[in-house]
Amino acid sequence: MKPTLFVLAAGMGSRYGGLKQLDPLGPNGETIMDYSVFDAVRAGFGKVVFVIRHDFEKEFEERVLSRYKNFVPVEVVFQSLDALPEGFTAPEGRTKPWGTGQAVLMGAEAIHEPFAVINADDFYGRSAFEAIGKYLADESRQPDHYCMVAYNVGNTMSRNGSVARGVCTVDKANHLRSIVERHDISYAECDHIIYTDETTGTTHTLDASTPISMNLWGFGPEIFGYIRGEFETFLSKYGNEPKREFYIPSVVDMLIARRQAVVDVLRTDAKWFGVTYATDRDNVVASLKALHDSGEYPAKLFS
After folding, report:
1. 120-167, pLDDT tens digit by residue?
2. CA distances for 288 relative to 67, 141, 233, 301, angstroms
3. 189/56 Cα distance (integer angstroms)
4. Where are the beta strands (DSSP E) in 79-201?
């Protein structure tokens, strides 16, 4: 059974200043997720599911889905503020959906096979899709054995501001032991990488080779049951807080702590790039052009 690619494309893109998921960055107007779809299909993925918001459905269909008509089967699901388990309602004053955990849960009715989760606005690279595609296609994989592609934090930084990353602890067997979201990772003097602990306010350094998550996960469809249960627990505790978000790494961390799942870490030396800030755009455009010029990608992804 071929795995499915699940693309999280419902984010607001507030720091970037617009719908960066639809920004034409490649030489022929390709979006970053066009490259992810292309890399996934040549790595053996058989279907692509996008989670988006209803308010840009028409534009998404016209500018994105039309590209894949003869390339790969696609489906669309929707993330919304009120897509909640029975018995829960959104609090007054909340304007955004509930985060990546809720976004992944929206795929439960469309995905019934192993699948990879990615962000729409991150460029992951061909080798990452080859590694995770091979893992998910392995029929000997046991249920509740998942994977994550880990990047070196030094290969995922922006020169234009701080970034948020899931900082990982990995054991000698390359199993993920824990993941902690850090929201203020940046460069200091001499290109040292630092972050500020949000609880204590103290500053710490990170080695450039520290493994971090860029939200490239590999799951089996049984994960949806776990996510649904954790989402209900989250809503019971924090559902009245208008800005609290439910993150998929938090679910994974909980499953590991409870020994309900094993997460294999697939390390990569690939250099990530993306458009966290509008000022990142020129670098991404140049990087994608260079990849086409070197032959990594054809002149046109979808002819």
Report:
1. 989 999 999 999 999 999 988 888 999 999 999 999 998 888 998 999
2. 18, 34, 42, 12
3. 41
4. 115-119, 122-123, 145-152, 163-170, 176-187, 193-196
255 CB-near residues (< 8 Å, 6+ apart): 144, 226, 261, 263
Distance CA 254, CA 252 (A): 5
Q: Judge whether 148 and 213 are in contact, CB under 8 Å.
A: yes
Query: CA 178, CA 166: separation in Å to the nearest integer?
Result: 9
pLDDT tens, residue by residue, 62-99: 888 888 988 999 999 999 999 999 999 999 888 889 99
Under DSSP, is residue 162 helix (H, G, I), strand (E, B) or coil? coil
Question: Dihedrals φ, ψ of 125, to 5°?
Answer: 95, 150
Q: To 10 degrees, what angle do helices 248-257 and 223-238 make?
A: 110
Please, what is the Cα angle at 195 between 192 and 200, to 5 degrees?
A: 140
| Nearest partner of 49 among 1, 124, 108, judged by Cα | 108
Question: In angstroms, rounded to a whole number, what is the distance separating the alpha carbons of residues 229 and 254?
Answer: 11
100: closest CA among 195, 264, 227?
A: 227
Is this model's pTM higher than 0.85 or not?
yes
Indicate the SS3 state at residue 121.
coil
In angstroms, how far apart are the furthest CA atoms of the chain?
54
Q: Do strands 145-152 and 262-268 pair parallel, antiparallel, or not at all (unpaired)? A: parallel
